[in-house]
């Protein structure tokens, strides 16, 4: 595994270094003051350095590192989601429970690999109990809207996100002790797909995919991004239990889900009248702006691996 | 109470302010939006909407270390002066300036106390609604203090600061905060126009502060 990790880290460093050099050259050649696109590009690349560094640190702390890192990501994402939606004073205890009980408990289930409860705790128990508590408070104003937003908040930012560290609990024969690499594979292809879609969209984008939801997404960006991300998946098959063809297919499905996640996130933001979820990551917006694709891809990737590769 | 001698922060006050600012960031990710004014060590009166005990913590978390050490929140003496512990928290830890709204003796005159702070070159955080807003209205009518201070010390900048979301983080009667993102929007300075009446000025300052709210509640 050491060998695989070294190759991945060197690869990522090479990509980031190239990106920083290209951005620096573009900035040096461009007329001053720099356009907002170039400023944003530089900010984004710098933020990537920080994110890759954080992921690498968490990686070396193994299961502890990953579980804690993704619990914190859930916290940041949930905070952004709840801030954006309508809440009422009488929701206070439900909201506190989302942060104080649901996040720790869900990640404790990940930690103890209690699969049976992990998959139903939020979609069954929280689904039923949260609206019950809200109803007990007796405040019926915009009731359905409030409970629906609460459900969505925990499903997206806790349940879906927790599927990333849950990959560590899968028993893939012949792949023992290397599950961290599944996380690396998922994150690299999904985030890579976002970046590649952005690049292909900027270079060749003409036909808008969905003008009403997200004007920046184009067919050219989507196809170019998905095809190249699938190729990237095939290239990375050496760190996975998949064959190159299988890796390409899995990457294709994960990245397609990631694209849909970005689309849904855009629709929610548009509905709520904001451009970004928050301001945690300079140049990118909030945590949800960076993880919307991962959120949709993680559960599907988890279940594909669990169904086809575990015993 | 009238003989306020202000020094820069004691160790305890520095530790409290650093600790609370860090806590505010962890819970609310607070960040300033400078929308019409800029950070400066000029002498200022920051006036803000008031819905929770956490308001001034959020506001001072947005100031630099240097400004924080000379900026004092004005708090109600009836509440914070009630017991030794409360007075210790308010004065020795938070370095607030306590004023009594129902004052009788001349040395308790709130305006005089606040002016004495300004005359030592320090800045103030003032909540001109006079009390925490527990109603459904976004902002209560202003009391006169802001006008009186500005008339007496026209060189001190009055900066409107809209504190977002604190009423959701810590609603009425609750003591555990829900982590929600908060921003503090700092607007352009407000000044009393020549010949402007007290009420007209207060209403204008009120409207200016209200207009800073970046996301007014949608009515749908």
From TrEMBL, chain A:
| Chain segments annotated as transmembrane | 48-78, 90-109, 115-136, 148-168, 180-200, 221-239, 245-268, 293-309
Enumerate the UniProt keywords alphabetically. Answer: Membrane, Nucleotidyltransferase, Transferase, Transmembrane, Transmembrane helix
Among Pfam families, the record links this protein to: CTP_transf_1 (PF01148)
Q: Which GO terms describe its biological process?
A: peptidoglycan-based cell wall biogenesis
Q: Name one GO molecular function term.
A: nucleotidyltransferase activity
One term under GO cellular component: plasma membrane
Output the superkingdom of the source species: Bacteria
Q: What is this protein called?
A: Phosphatidate cytidylyltransferase
UniProt source species: Mesorhizobium qingshengii
Lineage of the organism? Bacteria, Pseudomonadati, Pseudomonadota, Alphaproteobacteria, Hyphomicrobiales
Automatic annotation (TrEMBL), chain B:
Phospholipid/glycerol acyltransferase domain segment(s): 44-166
Ordered alphabetically, the record's keywords are: Acyltransferase, Transferase
> Does the keyword section mention Transferase?
yes
For this chain's UniProt record, which GO biological process terms are given?
Answer: phosphatidic acid biosynthetic process
Keyword Acyltransferase appears in the UniProt entry: yes
Q: Which SMART domains match?
A: PlsC
Source lineage: Bacteria, Pseudomonadati, Pseudomonadota, Alphaproteobacteria, Hyphomicrobiales
- Origin species: Mesorhizobium qingshengii
Protein name stated in the entry: Acyltransferase
Which pathway, metabolic or otherwise, does it act in?
A: Lipid metabolism
Which GO molecular function annotations are given, in alphabetical order? 1-acylglycerol-3-phosphate O-acyltransferase activity
């Amino acid at each position: 595994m050491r060998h695989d990790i070294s190759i991945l880290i060197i690869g990522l460093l090479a990509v980031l270094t190239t990106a920083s050099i290209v951005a620096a050259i573009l900035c040096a050649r461009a007329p001053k003051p720099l356009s907002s696109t170039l400023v944003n590009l530089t900010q984004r690349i710098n933020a990537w350095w920080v994110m890759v560094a954080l992921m690498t640190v968490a990686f070396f702390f193994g299961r502890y590192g990953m579980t804690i890192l993704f619990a914190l990501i859930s916290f940041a994402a949930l905070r952004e989601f709840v801030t954006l939606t309508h809440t009422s004073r009488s929701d206070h205890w439900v909201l506190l429970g989302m942060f104080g009980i649901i996040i720790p408990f869900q990640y404790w289930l990940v930690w103890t690999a209690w699969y049976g409860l992990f998959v139903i705790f939020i979609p069954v128990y929280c689904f039923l109990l949260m609206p019950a508590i809200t109803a007990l408070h007796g405040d019926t104003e915009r009731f359905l809207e409030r409970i629906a937003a609460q459900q969505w908040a925990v499903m997206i930012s806790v349940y879906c996100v927790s599927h990333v560290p849950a990959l560590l609990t899968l028993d893939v024969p012949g792949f023992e002790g290397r599950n961290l690499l599944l996380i690396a594979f998922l994150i690299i292809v999904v985030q890579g797909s976002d970046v590649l879609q952005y690049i292909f969209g900027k270079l060749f984008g003409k036909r808008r995919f969905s003008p009403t939801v997200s004007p920046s997404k184009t067919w050219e960006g989507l196809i170019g991004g998905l095809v190249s991300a699938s190729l990237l998946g095939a290239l990375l098959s050496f760190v996975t239990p998949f064959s190159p063809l299988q890796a390409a297919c899995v990457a294709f499905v994960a990245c397609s889900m990631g694209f849909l996640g970005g689309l849904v996130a855009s629709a929610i933001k548009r509905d709520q009248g904001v451009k970004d979820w928050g301001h945690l990551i300079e140049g990118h917006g909030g945590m949800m702006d960076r993880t919307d694709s991962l959120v949709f891809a993680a559960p599907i990737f988890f279940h594909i691996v669990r169904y086809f590769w575990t015993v | 109470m009238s003989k306020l001698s202000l020094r820069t922060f004691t160790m305890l006050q520095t530790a409290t302010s650093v600790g609370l600012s860090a806590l505010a960031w962890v819970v609310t990710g607070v960040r300033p939006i400078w929308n019409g004014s800029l950070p400066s060590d000029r002498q200022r009166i920051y006036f803000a909407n008031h819905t929770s005990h956490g308001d001034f913590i959020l506001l001072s978390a947005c100031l630099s270390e240097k400004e924080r050490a000379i900026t004092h929140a004005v708090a109600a003496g009836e509440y914070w002066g009630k017991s030794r512990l409360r007075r210790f928290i308010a004065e020795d830890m938070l370095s607030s300036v306590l004023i009594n709204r129902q004052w009788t003796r001349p040395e308790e005159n709130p305006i005089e106390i606040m002016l004495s702070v300004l005359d030592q070159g320090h800045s103030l955080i003032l909540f001109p609604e006079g009390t925490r807003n527990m109603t459904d209205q976004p902002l209560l009518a202003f009391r006169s203090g802001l006008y009186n201070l500005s008339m007496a010390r026209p060189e001190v900048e009055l900066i409107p600061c809209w504190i977002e979301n604190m009423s959701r983080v810590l609603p009425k009667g609750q003591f555990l905060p829900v982590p929600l993102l908060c921003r503090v929007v700092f607007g352009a300075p407000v000044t009393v126009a020549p010949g402007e009446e007290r009420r007209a000025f207060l209403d204008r300052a009120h409207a200016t502060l209200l207009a800073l709210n970046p996301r007014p509640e949608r009515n749908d």
